Amino acid sequence: MGCRKSTQNGSYPERRSSKETSRVGRKLKYAAAAIVAVTAGIYLNNSSLLAPHSGGKPVLLAHRGIAQRFDERNLRNDTCTAARMLPPSHDYLENTIRSMRASFDRGADIVEFDVHPTTDGEFAVFHDWTVDCRTDGQGVTREQAMARLKMLDIGYGYTADGGKTFPFRGKGIGLMPSLDEVLKTFPDRRFLINIKSRDPAEGEKLSAVLNQLPAERRKLIMVYGGDQPIEAVRRLSPETRTISRAAIKSCLVRYLGYGWTGIVPGACRNAIVLVPINYAPWLWGWPDRFLDRMAAANSAVFVLGPYQGGEFSTGVDDADTFRRLPENYSGGIWTNEIEAIARLTGR
C-alpha cells in the first residue's frame, strides 16, 4: 500500500506546514485588525468632523495697521520699503494712532505694531532699525530720545516713482507715537507688539512695562520677536502670549510629528501660533480640532499667507488666498489688507 513517508519523529511535513500557515494567517489577521484599530483611533482623535465648531467670525489681525504697501520682491533686512511704495490708495501711515484707529473702525480685532526702546526710557512705535529711510532724521532708532523722535516727519521718505514725488512729505511730523501713548489711547483694545531686536534687555524692559498694567489689560497684549527678548518676556511675564521664530518652527514641526496623539508641544502653549496657509491642511485635526487644542493650551492661532521658503510668509491679503481657508473658519487671520479681508468676512 502506498502511504506518506513520515520523518524521524513520526510527524508529517504536510500537516506541520498547514498548521504553520494557519498560525501565520491568524497573526496577520490580528496585525491587520490592530492596524485598523490604531488607524481608526488616530482618525477619531484627529478628525475635525467630530470636533465641536466654535462658530463666530474669524479674528482679524491687522499687521502694522492700515499701511502703505510696497514691492515685496527680493527684500532684505536693510531694504528701504518706503522708497518702494506702491501707488497709494489712501493716506494712512503705518504704526500711527490714526492708522490703528482706522484699522479698528474697519474691522480689526487686533493691531500689530513695532517697538524700539529709547534713550529716555520709553518705547517708540516705529518699524525701522534706523530712521534714515522713512523720516527726515538720521541714526539708529533706539539710540535716540522719544522727544527727538517726536520731532521727525515719518512720511518724509515715501515715494512710488523712484524719488520724483513724495506724497506724504511734511504730513507725518510728530506722528510717531510712544508705546505708552498707544496703550492710553486704546485702553481696551487688543495688540500684538513686535520687538525688533535680539537684545534680551529689550524683553526685560518691555516686561517691566507690561507688568505695571492691570491683569485684565495684560491679557489683551501679545508679544513676538527675536528669540532672546521673547525668552525674557516668557520668563518675566509668563501669562503673556508670545512667539519667536525658533518657537514657531519648534511648535509646528513637533506638532506635525506627534500632534496625532493630542499632545500639544510646549512651544505651542501660551503662544501665538502662526500657520502658513499652505501648511495648515497638514496639521493634525485642522481646522476645528486643532483650534480647540490650541485654545485649551491658551494659544491664539493666526493663518498667514503661503510659506515658500526663505523669509516667513506675508498675510492673507486677497480674495484668492482668503478662499483657501476652510468654510466657516473661526480662527485668526493675519493680514496686511484689513479693509479687504474684513469685507470678505462680512464686516
TrEMBL record:
Residues 13-23 have a biased composition (Basic and acidic residues). Residues 1-11 have a biased composition (Polar residues). GO terms for biological process: lipid metabolic process. Residues 1-23 are annotated as: Disordered. Residues 74-345 form the GP-PDE domain. Gene3D superfamilies: Phosphatidylinositol (PI) phosphodiesterase. InterPro entries: GP_PDE_dom, PLC-like_Pdiesterase_TIM-brl. It comes from the Bacteria. GO terms for molecular function: phosphoric diester hydrolase activity. Transmembrane segments: none annotated. Pfam families: GDPD. PANTHER family: GLYCEROPHOSPHORYL DIESTER PHOSPHODIESTERASE, GP-PDE DOMAIN-CONTAINING PROTEIN. This is Glycerophosphodiester phosphodiesterase.
